[in-house]
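Sample entry as discussed:
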Amino acid sequence: MKAWASKPNVVQNLRDAGCCSRVVEEFLSLGARGDTNGQLRLLSQHRQQLLDTVHRKEQQICCLDYLVYEMEKGGETETPAKEGGYSDENH
């Protein structure tokens, strides 16, 4: 077994990557069954979720940057509401 694959190292790495207990347990269960493809699929799904979050947060930052830009230049900040705008979640 490779050093990176020791159970404590893998669990810590998954936690550091933001995986919840359910994902950690599923990953270990798949590993116990020798289902490497299942583990890779699970990691890929979690990675995609992280990327989706990053993209949402990036868009929120862009909205704030635009507001700051408009305020600093002294222009009007009123813009038409965008379809699919952001709610107050995660504030």
